[in-house]
Amino acid sequence: MFAIFLTPAYAPFAIAFVVMIGIGLIEAIGLGLGHLDVHADLHAETDGGGVLDWLGLGHELPILIWLTSLLGCFTLAGIAIQQGATLVTGSPLGWGVASGAALFAGAMLNTLAANGLARVMPGFESSVISTDDLLRRRGTILEGVARRGSPARAKVVDQHGQAHFIMVEPHDDKDAIAAGETALIVRRDGTMFYALPDTNVLLQPI
């Protein structure tokens, strides 16, 4: 039975299934290692949402979840089309024709699936943040001493309670932030964050 999925007629759907499993493993590994800071803003340009709403992206469903769902729908649609063609004509369709039909049917099916997933996964959706969301939050230096030109590793907890580990330098040249001390993250340059230590006079109450 499974041998038919290795034939050219089923090859696109077998590949899509393998890619879907691969994305699922990447997501599982990412969750196991901690928060992956992947952020994508997808906004519709029209008042009604337009193409993004039709595709199921109008509700800000995480892109990897949407892609996994699309691959799954494409695979199921393709197998159903080829099985139906085999029952009617005695042989499956050519892989090109079947892929085109499966892509159309899978996209329509994925619209329903993606909209359903967006409604039942609010927690996952809300936990995706931008690195800039870490600004104006306090971090704790974990080891070493952060000085200008010599960053130290710090832990910052976001509004969802998830920990992020970033490299921090003091905002001011003269400051140094030792392990265990807290500091306010005030700016970012690429992957480097800059902070004012809580001992800084600017952060002292008047």
From TrEMBL:
InterPro entries: YqiJ_N, YqiJ_OB. Residues 135-195 form the Inner membrane protein YqiJ OB-fold domain. The keyword Transmembrane applies. Residues 12-106 form the Inner membrane protein YqiJ N-terminal domain. Keywords: Membrane, Transmembrane, Transmembrane helix. The chain crosses the membrane at residues 12-33, 63-81, 93-113. This is DUF1449 domain-containing protein. It comes from Sphingomonas taxi. The lineage of its organism: Bacteria, Pseudomonadati, Pseudomonadota, Alphaproteobacteria, Sphingomonadales.
